[in-house]
Amino acid sequence: MNYQNQGIIVEIEKARATDAEWIDEKIRIEFPYTEFTPKKIIERMNNPKYLVLVAHQENILTGFAEIEFFLDKKEIRLNAIYVDDAWRGQKIATKIVEHLVEECRRVFAERLFLLVRTSNDGAKELYEKNGFTFEKMHDKKIEGEKIEVWSRKILPQATHIRRYAS
Fold first, then answer.
1. What would you measure as the largest C-alpha separation in the chain, in angstroms?
2. Rounded CA gap, 162 and 146, in Å?
3. Which candidate, 110, 102, 32, 24, places its Cα nearest to that of 64?
4. Model pLDDT for residues 73-88, shown as the tens digit of each residue
5. What is the dihedral of CA 56, 85, 149, 156, to 10 degrees?
6. What pLDDT digit, counting tens, does each position of 117-149 carry?
7. Which run of H or of E encompasses 93?
8. Which of 23, 40, 53, 158 is the most exposed place for a label (fewest CB within 10 A)?
9. Distance separating alpha carbons of residues 51 and 19, to the nearest angstrom
10. For 15-127, where are the E strands, in sequence order?
């Protein structure tokens, strides 16, 4: 899917195996508590329970996201979202979230939720701007830090009703 903002065209699409090393490099920086490898990332790319997306401008990777499907509960969890420092402030994360919301609608999920560190004010600001609200404190910690659960209800796409004269 293509998005245009301030003359910049950003494409968001399913990640490919060739993207795994770049994603792994970013995960090691932003999510060091995880134990991912390029091989594990590729396994997730090939697992229908997950969807790994990348954002890029031309051939430059600018960000990624991973979601996990819990369709028996009509929910999707956003496991990770990342935009490279050089591309922040250009609404790429917002475009990724919009894409994820459409994915939720596609599979009839009613809730998109995520976990975020209490101290991550920048992420929480992004989530709030994109319709997420604080739900509760999570019962576990990540690297000793408290975690919050945020969620967004997914409403079905509005449909147009035509009325015909009788």
1. 67
2. 50
3. 24
4. 999 999 999 999 999 8
5. -30
6. 999 999 999 999 999 999 999 999 988 999 999
7. helix 92-106
8. 158
9. 13
10. 50-57, 60-70, 75-83, 111-117
Cα–Cα distance for residue pair 29/148, rounded to 1 Å? 21
What residue type is assigned to position 35 of the chain? E
- Residue 99 sits at φ, ψ, to 5 deg, of -65, -40
The whole-angstrom separation of Cα 78 and Cα 89 is 20
Q: What are the residue boundaries of the structural domains of the chain, listed by start?
A: 2-153
CATH architecture assignment, domain 2-153: 3-Layer(aba) Sandwich (3.40)
Which tokens go with 113? 């939720």
Nearest one of 74, 82, 78, 76 to 24, comparing CA atoms? 82
Report the distance separating Cα 101 and Cα 47, nearest Å: 20
